[in-house]
UniProtKB/TrEMBL annotation:
In the N-terminal section; belongs to the NnrE/AIBP family. In the C-terminal section; belongs to the NnrD/CARKD family. Homotetramer. (6S)-NADPHX binds at residues 64-68, 129-135, 158, 260, 323, 374, 441. It comes from Rhizobium quercicola. Residues 225-495 form the YjeF C-terminal domain. This is Bifunctional NAD(P)H-hydrate repair enzyme. Residues 17-215 form the YjeF N-terminal domain. Binds 1 potassium ion per subunit. The gene is nnrE. The keyword Zinc-finger does not apply.
Length: 495
């Protein structure tokens, strides 16, 4: 029974979890038994973290989260705690297991509007959970703000009420939880922002649903951890000769704007590419030579010189865009590189804002393009997706990857990595101070290094994003992009 180890990184959407609950019930498991297990897990968390609470206040909605909270109230009362129960809405609206919980637990409930938050309360939030689809407003929003203003600890069941489990967005208002207890698997809202910061410490509790049922409903959506790309890392040999560790090419623009490309090239070398060459106009060569030693330099001024360069099949991957400028030149270079592994970043993305389809059409067939947009750059290639407020960040990245036939790194503090065939990873290891000038240039170079070493595009992108986040932690708060370069560490090797 229970959750297998590999399921720990899985993420289920709220609709997937509803299907899991349904199939668990039809398989013969007692749905009320699962509710009791959930409620007792919440009570155990409450007692473990707040043994000195003056009062536990259980706020119950009319759905299953309300039933979970009522069972938690029963367990807390049985432990000797002082407990108060408040119900949102008419008791006649209770149905199924939630109605059974209220019918069998001998505790009186009061209307939610009667609750006056007080110092010493620990609030157990069983109002909405992950399935909220409408904005929180009015008296409930006022209550949430009162609880927040008093800094009362909140233990959320599944997700803090007000957070959309699908997107992580706040619908109107929400609780700020100190602890969140969810069951069997995390939801996107636990990892996407701002939901991640509103959950507090997250506990994932196994309440006894068989792994086979969870597996039958899981989407190809996971947290980005080393387990996702460990097999690709095994294929890398850090002790190999430099020519066997790949040759990365990074394109630079004019001398005055070459700093971003230098960051990418240096990151590529630090991330394990055996050789890195910077390609730039002849006029930029003196500036580059003054700043770089281990990176090789190659002047390219004309299309013929570019053609001569890329005839060399020993060049394994390319990075184009950081500090490049020259949109028309970008488009010519991309056309020449369309059958090679390419990381397109920054100016490389913006160059196609007038005709994104030209870029997408050039990279049909086997996936070999990695796009690394932040939200603004994303809107230049995918304005319709960026403007659709009904789409989550996962939706936008997934649809964009399919449209472009590229691995898409939609950057941010909750970066999402998606590939055209539906695999998606949410990255959660990046510190907030990683948002600094030059950080994206470093990421592009790491992705390029992984591609040059032979990693498949999705694994190259996901491992680079994780490695970038780990370097941010290593560099520490207040870091610069130069600090980030020095903090790049080897990828973890699977045993």
């Amino acid at each position: 029974m229970g959750v297998e180890t590999d399921i720990a990184s899985w993420i289920l959407t709220p609709s997937d979890m509803t299907a899991v609950d349904r199939d668990a019930a039809t398989s013969g498991l007692s749905s009320f038994g699962l509710m009791r297990a959930a409620g007792y897990a919440v009570a155990a968390s409450a007692l473990r973290h707040y043994p000195a609470a003056t009062r536990f206040v259980c706020l119950c909605g009319v759905g299953n989260n309300g039933g979970d909270a009522m069972i938690a109230a029963e367990a807390l009362t049985g432990s000797g705690a002082d407990v108060a129960v408040y119900l949102m809405g008419d008791r006649a609206r209770l149905a199924g297991d939630a109605a059974r919980a209220f019918a069998t637990v001998p505790l009186r409930s009061q209307p939610l509007g009667a609750y006056v938050p007080a110092i010493g309360d620990v609030v157990i939030d069983g109002l909405f959970g992950a399935g909220l689809s409408r904005a929180v407003s009015g008296a409930l929003a006022t209550l949430m703000r009162a609880v927040t203003d008093l800094a009362l600890p909140v233990i959320a069941i599944d997700l803090p009420s007000g957070v959309d489990g699908r997107s992580g967005q706040v619908l109107g208002d929400s609780f700020q939880a100190a602890q969140t207890v969810t069951f069997m698997a995390r939801k996107p809202g636990h990892l996407l922002l701002p939901g991640r910061t509103l959950c507090g410490a997250l506990e994932v509790v196994d309440i006894g649903i068989p792994a086979r049922i969870i597996r039958s409903h899981r989407a190809p959506l996971v947290e980005n951890t080393p387990a996702l790309w460990r097999d690709a890392v095994k294929a890398l040999d850090p002790g190999a000769h430099k020519y066997r560790r790949g040759h990365l090419v990074v394109f630079s623009g004019a001398a005055a704007s070459s700093g971003a490309a230098r960051m990418s090239a240096t990151a590529g070398l630090s991330a394990g590419a055996g050789l890195v060459t910077m390609v730039a106009p002849t006029e930029a060569m003196p500036t580059l030579a003054a700043h770089l030693t281990a990176v090789m330099l190659k002047p390219v001024d004309t299309d013929a010189m570019l053609s001569d360069l890329i005839e060399d099949t020993r060049l394994n991957a390319f990075v184009l865009g950081p500090g490049f400028g020259a949109p028309e030149r970008v488009r010519r270079f991309v056309a020449a590189l369309c059958d090679r592994p390419l990381v397109l970043d920054a100016d490389g993305i913006t160059a196609f804002r007038e005709d994104p389809q030209a870029l997408f059409d050039a990279f049909r067939g086997p996936v070999r393009l990695v796009l690394t947009p932040h939200d603004g750059e994303f809107s230049r290639l995918f304005p319709d997706l960026a403007g659709d407020t009904a789409l989550s960040k996962i939706d936008r990245a997934t649809m964009a990857a399919a449209r472009s036939n590229a691995v898409l790194i939609l950057k941010g503090p909750d970066t999402v990595i998606a590939e055209p065939h539906g695999r998606v990873a949410i990255n959660a290891n990046a510190p907030p101070w990683l948002a600094t000038a030059g950080s994206g240039d470093v990421l592009a170079g790491i992705v390029g290094a992984h591609l040059a070493q032979g990693m498949p595009p999705f694994e190259a992108a996901a491992s680079a994003v994780w490695r970038h986040g780990a370097a941010g932690h290593e560099a520490g708060e207040g870091m610069t992009a130069e600090d980030l370069l020095r903090a790049i560490r080897p990828l973890p090797q699977a045993s």
